[in-house]
Design a protein that fits this description.
Layout (H helix, E strand, L loop, with lengths): L2 H9 L24 H15 L5 H5 L4 H11 L1
Length: about 80
């Protein structure tokens, strides 16, 4: 999956809309609605959509949407 498709998939799970958009370089923890609950939602989405299990430790090592995308794609 290309990163732009991945971003669109993630954006469906965010409650806020980001007028400037979410980019590969967006630091997801800096998004306005990012929280521990949002982290669980994203983790579950990745497990369902890609059959990739991600731990809290995995997520803590990532900063950007690109990092997240690369980790998921490397585990498919």
């Amino acid at each position: 999956m290309e990163i732009q498709e991945f971003i669109k998939l993630l954006e469906t799970e965010f409650e806020e809309e980001y007028p400037d958009g979410v980019t590969p370089e967006t630091k997801f923890r800096e998004l306005e609605d990012w929280s521990s609950m949002q982290a669980l939602i994203v983790t579950a989405l990745i497990e369902v959509e890609f059959e990739v299990t991600m731990t809290a430790t995995d997520l803590s090592k990532l900063e950007t949407i690109r990092d997240l995308h690369e980790m998921v794609m490397s585990r498919i």
